[in-house]
């Protein structure tokens, strides 16, 4: 299962309606080698054997091209996706004494990569008492675009921006990696003493768990992107108390989690109008 349908609230021209979007599935995969924890990486379910073999080869852990290690499935989640595997291989073929302390970056570039077990993860809840006017979101992206100097010259960089609850721009940073741009923004806010003022984080790329986790770590309750979220990003945003908005372009957006933190029409009115079903508001189907 590589995709899954989620409900959201679609906003355009001061009008709200329920939508059902297809999102890419993102799940953590815990990898052990001969029962020794190696790492947790993120993936779209499927082809785990190829993923693990390629990862171990490119990270110089198993370089013997003739080696065909056995992949033992240790655990699956409630959806049937593989979440934990063990690689059974002759110890002499393991070139790196990783000892469960991997710190390399995998292809998903996510905030989970580099962890050795799922128990290492922590997702606290962001405390928030503020309401964000949904109309400010479009203005935030206009301001973000105005500051994307590197992108205008190269077309090859991502941008992240931090804004106050009133839509005031606090920081904009660019980087070839979207996660790096977010880290730069948070770093600048820390350096200038404005992190507590940051209420909304905007990003120019897709939203994976990594980006949600960085917003959570910084205590930022609103997260918005011009692109799509992953399923795990939505699930974690719901748990973390973060309002996640995606496809924010052309004066429209889709709300996937915690819509009660936005200044929007009364949710009860939306339900009564038939445009939003209370039972499936911002939940997966």
TrEMBL record:
It comes from the Bacteria. InterPro entries: Cytidine_deaminase-like, FdhD. It is found in: Cytoplasm. Keywords: Cytoplasm, Molybdenum cofactor biosynthesis. Mo-bis(molybdopterin guanine dinucleotide) binds at residues 247-252. The active site is at 110 (cysteine persulfide intermediate). Belongs to the FdhD family. Required for formate dehydrogenase (FDH) activity. Acts as a sulfur carrier protein that transfers sulfur from IscS to the molybdenum cofactor prior to its insertion into FDH. PANTHER family: FORMATE DEHYDROGENASE, SULFUR CARRIER PROTEIN FDHD. HAMAP family: FdhD. This is Sulfur carrier protein FdhD. It comes from Shivajiella indica. The lineage of its organism: Bacteria, Pseudomonadati, Bacteroidota, Cytophagia, Cytophagales.
């Amino acid at each position: 299962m590589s995709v899954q349908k989620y409900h959201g609230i679609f906003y355009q021209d001061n009008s709200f309606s329920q939508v059902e979007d297809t999102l890419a599935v993102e799940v953590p995969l815990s990898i052990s080698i001969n029962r020794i924890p190696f790492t947790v990486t993120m993936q779209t379910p499927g082809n785990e054997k190829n993923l693990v073999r390629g990862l171990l080869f490119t990270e110089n852990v198993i370089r013997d091209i003739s080696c065909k290690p056995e992949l033992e499935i240790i655990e699956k989640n409630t959806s049937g996706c593989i979440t934990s595997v063990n690689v059974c291989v002759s110890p002499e073929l393991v070139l790196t004494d990783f000892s469960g302390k991997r710190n390399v970056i995998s292809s998903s570039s996510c905030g989970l990569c580099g962890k050795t077990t799922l128990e290492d993860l922590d997702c606290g809840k962001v405390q928030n008492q503020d309401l964000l006017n949904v109309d400010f979101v479009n203005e935030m992206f206009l301001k973000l675009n105005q500051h994307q100097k590197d992108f205008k010259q190269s077309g090859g960089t991502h941008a992240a921006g931090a804004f106050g609850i009133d839509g005031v721009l606090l920081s904009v940073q660019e980087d070839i990696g979207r996660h790096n741009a977010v880290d730069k923004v948070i770093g600048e806010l820390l350096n200038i003493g404005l992190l507590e003022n940051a209420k909304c984080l905007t990003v120019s790329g897709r939203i994976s768990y990594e980006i949600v986790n960085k917003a959570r770590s910084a205590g930022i309750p609103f997260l918005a992107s011009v692109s799509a979220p992953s399923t795990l990003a939505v699930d974690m945003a719901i748990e973390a108390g973060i309002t996640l908005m995606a496809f924010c372009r052309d004066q429209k957006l889709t709300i996937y989690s915690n819509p009660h933190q936005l200044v929007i029409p009364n949710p009860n009115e939306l339900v009564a109008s038939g445009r939003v079903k209370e039972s499936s508001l911002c939940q997966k189907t």
